[in-house]
Amino acid sequence: MFLYLPIATLIVFSFNESKLVTIWSGFSVKWYFELLSDRQMIDAVLNSLIIAFSSASMSVIIGTLAAIVLVKIGRFKGESMFALFITAPMVLPDVIIGLSMLLLFVAMSNIIGWPEKGMVTIWISMVTLTSAYVTVVVRSRMRELDTSIEEAALDLGAGPIKTFFTIILPSIMPAIVSGWLLAFTLSMDDLVITQFVAGPNSSTLPVLVFSKVRRGLNPEINALPTIIVFIDSVCTYVYWLSRVRADRRRKRDMQLALNRKG
Q1: How many Å is the Cα radius of gyration of the chain?
Q2: What's the whole-number mean pLDDT along residues 91-107?
């Protein structure tokens, strides 16, 4: 109740006809229509989705390569320093990361004239943050792999590149997908770092919602998380249903195999 009662209350009052978010005056869906007609809110959602998708994709590439270096290369000079730098954003406060990124971008802009505060600076900052999480997830999965299969592929004549794409990559794909989803969520949800590096025309959804809430509560803000909760619930249900069907199919195949063997 401590975790979900506030969310349930928010969903209920998103259908409140009154503009006062704490006083119920009747059922209405007008705030959803106002939300869909709010161009500023729509632009912020699109900006957040673009940044989250692009930063998660780049973070998967960087994090996977970093995990391969840490696991497959083994001990090398500077390994501890490399691991420290790649995972440091996980333990540093967001305020420190945002301020350091801001100082970096200001210095680069003064020296080479690039980049200006906007979508690019937010993307770079999110990649810096989320790559650490992807590295940890993929690295933990790679440590659990059975190296005998990889060694057998190499002994049978497969090159390192073919072995990676046919043996290693499919084995670590669940970790890569998990890392991508985690990076997407962190990028979509970030507020502190984005406030430091965002430009005037690159407002993301958390920044816009935070600025609106500071000026006062609005039922339109209740409608937005209600839609997000609904989408998350549908996606979770679809995933759960696919897992249940896959488990049933696997059990059925195992039973058929045992019956044929018997």
Answers
A1: 24
A2: 93
